[in-house]
Amino acid sequence: MPLCTFPGLSVFDAKCPNEKWVTDVTEFKVNGKKLYLSPIMDLYNGEIISYNLATRSQPSMVPTMFTDELKQLSKDENPILHSDQGWQYQMSRWQRWLKDSGIVQSMSCRGNCLDNAVIESFLGTLKSECYYLNEYKNVEGLKQDIIDYINNYN
């Protein structure tokens, strides 16, 4: 499947919930250990509708975020999910899963973070307001702060 962009996604707003979602994966390091965060933001209201925190970046990390959201979608809702061209989003298994789930895949142009600016901005702000201001002794402390941050953000 070719890497693609969705032409309408240069406009980062949505007229209704579950019309356009954006996602990305970011990495945190604590004492030589890594923590990965993969959130999904609904562009309708900027809410983080789902996220996954994991100590390994692996293909199963991304689809596990969707379990509850897919149950809540009506049959006529087919959200566009926009991401960068990270390896997780290029996997044929992921692309099949999206198609089978009724989600339209959209990816940024290669090497252009502005194509995914909304979620990149959220992650940058989270890191500035949460991660960079604290010294964490372990991944669990950071994980709890990220959960609290997202809950307060929403």
TrEMBL record:
Matches recorded under InterPro entries: Integrase_cat-core (IPR001584), RNaseH-like_sf (IPR012337), RNaseH_sf (IPR036397), Transpos_IS3 (IPR048020), Transposase_IS3/IS150/IS904 (IPR050900)
Pfam families from the UniProt entry: rve, rve_2
Domain Integrase catalytic: 13-154
Cited SUPFAM superfamilies: Ribonuclease H-like
Signal peptide range in chain numbering: none
GO biological process, one term: DNA integration
Single GO molecular function: nucleic acid binding
PROSITE patterns: INTEGRASE
Listed NCBIfam families: transpos_IS3
Protein name, UniProt field: IS3 family transposase
